[in-house]
Amino acid sequence: MPRQKTHSGAKKRFRVTRRGKVMVAQKNRKHLLEGKGSSRKRRLAGDRAVAAPDAKRIKRLLGA
């Protein structure tokens, strides 16, 4: 049986940690950064874990 292809849109947006959590970049950090405070931009810099019901669906798209 042929292998399942990875969803190309999902692989650009999500990553799976070694323990299996699905991480995604936080919103509000892409553009219009001049109007946002420095502390707010630092807070948004890290990745965020995805909710469990969504993570199951994302893992299927990633083939993980």
Describe the structure.
The chain has 64 residues and is of the alpha+beta class. The protein has one domain (8-62): Factor Xa Inhibitor (Irregular). It is built from three helices and three strands; from the N terminus they run αββαβα. It has helices spanning 8-13, 38-43, 52-62; strands at 14-16, 22-25, 47-49. The longest helix has 11 residues, at 52-62. The two termini are 17 Å apart. The mean pLDDT is 95.
Class per helix and strand makeup: alpha+beta
According to DSSP, the number of beta strands is 3
The helix fraction, in percent, is 25-40%
Global shape = elongated
Which properties best describe this structure?
64 residues, alpha+beta, Factor Xa Inhibitor, 3-stranded antiparallel beta sheet
In short:
The protein is an alpha+beta fold. It has helices spanning 8-13, 38-43, 52-62, and strands at 14-16, 22-25, 47-49.
Question: What's the structural blueprint in terms of helices and strands?
Answer:
Elements (H helix, E strand, L loop, with lengths): L7 H6 E3 L5 E4 L12 H6 L3 E3 L2 H11 L2
Antiparallel strand pairs: 1-2, 2-3
